[in-house]
Amino acid sequence: MYHPFILGDKVYLRGLQKNDLTGNMFQWANDSDVTHHMFMGAMPNTIEGLEEEYAQLIKSKNDVVLAIIDKKTDIHLGNVGLYLINWISRSAELRIIIGEKKYWNKGYGTEATELTVTYGFEKLNLNKIWLGVNQDNKGAVKTYEKTGFVYEGTLRQEIYRNGQYYDAVRMSILRDEYFARQEK
């Protein structure tokens, strides 16, 4: 394991590093299967663009982005983060990408989501973690429901991808809901 920050059963989360940009991560935004349900992927990915985004992230006090690493192989399989952290209202947006397709539908995204939610509530003292997801991404919606997120509303025709508009679902989990789940 290389500098684990948060340990799970299948994965560990560590800080995103500059050398991650030229690894598998570079191809994820260019892969139409990976970005099919996402905002990203409409423009080609470039090293320069990734480096600029990375430079902004490491300076940010309002974004925490973590690499998702397979514990058995040390493969960087995705990223997860808490973005737009509002330190007054104690809220943040959760974003996740599992870019390595062989890790899809095997619980890696669920575990990374759970670890990040725990980090947000137990370490950062957040009160609310929210997210937006393409309504047609049924697997992601199911994962978020399994990890305690509840439906807040629908943002109509929020996402344009694949030549059509999609509705986005807004979901969230509150601190009290998280701790009630932990007691069970």
- Write down the overall geometry: globular
How many E strands? 8
Structural domains: how many: 1
Strand content: 25-35%
- Compute the separation of the termini in Å: 31 Å
Order of H and E elements:
EEHHHEEEHEHEEH
The CATH homologous superfamily is named: Gcn5-related N-acetyltransferase (GNAT)
Q: What's the CATH topology name?
A: Aminopeptidase
Please identify, by name, the CATH architecture.
3-Layer(aba) Sandwich
Would you mind describing this structure in some detail?
It is a single chain. This protein is of the alpha+beta class. The chain has one domain (6-183): Aminopeptidase (3-Layer(aba) Sandwich), CATH 3.40.630. Helices cover 29% and strands 34% of the residues. It has helices at residues 25-28, 32-35, 47-59, 108-122, 138-146, 175-183, and strands at 6-7, 11-15, 64-70, 76-86, 91-98, 128-134, 150-161, 164-174. It has an eight-stranded mixed β-sheet. A hairpin with a 5-residue loop joins strand 3 (64-70) and strand 4. The longest helix has 15 residues, at 108-122.
